[in-house]
Amino acid sequence: MKEFWIETSKENISASIISQYCDVEVRGDKAIFVTQKQEQPILSPTVSNFKTLDVKDKILRICISDKSTEDMIVDAAERGASYLLISTMNWRVIPLENIIARIKGKSKIIAEVTNAEEAKVALEILESGTDGILLNPVHIEEVLKTAAFVKPEALKLETTTAKIVSTKPIGNGARVCVDTCDLMSQGEGMFVGSQSAGLFLVEAEVNENPYVASRPFRVNAGSLSMYTLGNLQTTRYLQEFKAGDEVVIVNRDGKTRKANVGRIKIEIRPLILIEAQSGEKIIKVILQNAETIRVVTAKGSKPVTELELDDEVIVHLAAKGGRHFGISVPDETVIEK
């Protein structure tokens, strides 16, 4: 399993984010192992003082600037260093390829990165990749993007069930199909809703039927004014998405992953308003009124044309407050109807 290290000296990352996604927090010259709650010093040797250091079972932080620093990393692994935190001066790929080829399995290799794209490259170099990454983030969003590659099992949304209380055909309107660059399976789709307070899990077009071919890359996501998740922290209107954007794919257990949009298709179709209740909260969604559009249930999915009162569907309920341009504002009072 890959390790996710995070540097917090330059960015204020909450303790809850660190505990949920990260294995090690780096503060200056200390490595704090989150689960064990243990601290270890980080050594930063130079070529001139390296030979005098006891590096066995130690954490070393080294920047590859030339062949001598690359050789120093190899020597450290041979002498029993536990972790090697590696950054590069200019070339990013070739130096890491050399290190992986020369010391993989002798010491754990942690590549220093500044964003999710660099993390993905480091974790896939020479197929096996580094043992983990050390992220020095500039924004909390970069932490979540990086976690999608390093710790996908941790990226979960809280799901619950809501009971259908009404369905109502409402005539024609503009609906959005989100065609992704990935394939989805049964129980996967996107959270969609009329209100940021609650979103319905709309299943991808993965089910076979006798009239049209399945489209497992597609979520027929509903009216263009519906909300969906732009990421785990913010919502966006369906109308805002375009090719190349990222969307959040979710399964019935709340496990998430990212996919890129291949295209957005907007057409005029008959729509249906669906209302469901969870506790005292009523939430709504407007979807295309057709047999191929299905909402996810605890054990399967059901076409919107067959929904009945008291049917239970999978939903995500947001925290209290409102949203400003998709960003949660917990203390704001917002009434959505």
Architecture blueprint of SSEs:
Layout: E1 3-7, H1 15-21, E2 24-27, E3 30-33, E4 38-43, E5 59-64, H2 67-78, E6 83-88, H3 93-103, E7 108-113, H4 116-124, E8 132-135, H5 140-150, E9 160-180, E10 188-195, E11 198-203, E12 218-223, E13 227-229, E14 235-237, E15 246-251, E16 256-278, E17 281-288, E18 294-296, E19 301-303, E20 312-317, E21 322-324, E22 327-329
Parallel strand pairs: 1-2, 1-8, 4-5, 5-6, 6-7, 7-8
Antiparallel strand pairs: 2-3, 3-4, 9-12, 9-16, 9-20, 10-11, 10-13, 10-15, 11-20, 13-14, 15-16, 16-17, 18-19, 21-22
Structure write-up:
The chain is mainly beta and 337 residues long. It folds into two domains: 3-154, TIM Barrel (Alpha-Beta Barrel), CATH 3.20.20; 160-329, Endonuclease - Pi-scei, Chain A, domain 1 (Beta Complex). Helices cover 15% and strands 42% of the residues. It has five helices and 22 strands. It has helices at 15-21, 67-78, 93-103, 116-124, 140-150, and strands at 3-7, 24-27, 30-33, 38-43, 59-64, 83-88, 108-113, 132-135, 160-180, 188-195, 198-203, 218-223, 227-229, 235-237, 246-251, 256-278, 281-288, 294-296, 301-303, 312-317, 322-324, 327-329. The radius of gyration is 24 Å and the shape is elongated.
